[in-house]
Amino acid sequence: MFPETLLQLDRAVFLLFNGSDSLFLDRLATLLTSGLAWMPFYVALLYLVIKNNDTMPQIALTIVCALSCVLLADALADGIVKPLVARPRPLNDPFFKDAVDSVTSVWSASYSFFSAHAANTFSLAVFFSFLIRHRLAVIALMVWSAVNCWTRLYLGMHYPSDILVGLAWGFLVGWLVYRLYQHFRQRLSPDINYVSSQYTPTGYAIEDIDIMLTMLSFTFLYATLYAAWGN
């Protein structure tokens, strides 16, 4: 499934990102790879959606679309491709695991190709980027997804090719779901182009986006402090 030349390149690039002798980075990656660490950010996204949609059908449509991103991204990765390809994770590969710098508390018996973390986070990042249309928010969402991808490489859970394919699938899912969102959104209410310094072109209030960005920054700050001084 993976030609030897590509496999060697994959492993070489993987080793550039995998592990370190830093307890700080071990703690940081372990915390940030967990979905629970991002709960304040998810709550802020939910608040943003509820606050900036006028009716319950509009709110429900946006939430269902966001959940669909995760379900579609995850279903193909974990439900279909991983069992079919059956590629061991770097830290489980009997021919490579001795070269992997792993963290003792992090382990998984599931397969590596392709990364559901990359697909899930990037599908949400793409969907909300199209939805919000705010430059700083787009940058923040991309950074959030990139950090999740970095943790998977650092912890020895995925090869770079797993991440790249996950990102490609995540982009496709996020874009397709947004197109479906547009189709149904137009049936609920006509499109309005906002021309105001207080709103994005799609009608999302800048002050509410700032709350979302603050919660994301808070998560990074908390994770950094925990990694530096946590037990």
Shape: globular
Average predicted confidence as pLDDT: 91
Distance between the termini: 42 Å
Instruction: List low-pLDDT spans.
Output: none
Textual characterization of the structure:
The structure is a single chain. The protein is an all-alpha fold. It contains 8 helices and no strands. The mean pLDDT is 91.
Strand and helix map with partners:
Layout: H1 4-17, H2 23-32, H3 39-51, H4 56-85, H5 116-132, H6 135-154, H7 160-188, H8 206-229
Features:
8 helices; mainly alpha; 231 residues
How would you sum up this structure in a few lines?
The protein has eight helices and no strands. It has helices at 4-17, 23-32, 39-51, 56-85, 116-132, 135-154, 160-188, 206-229.
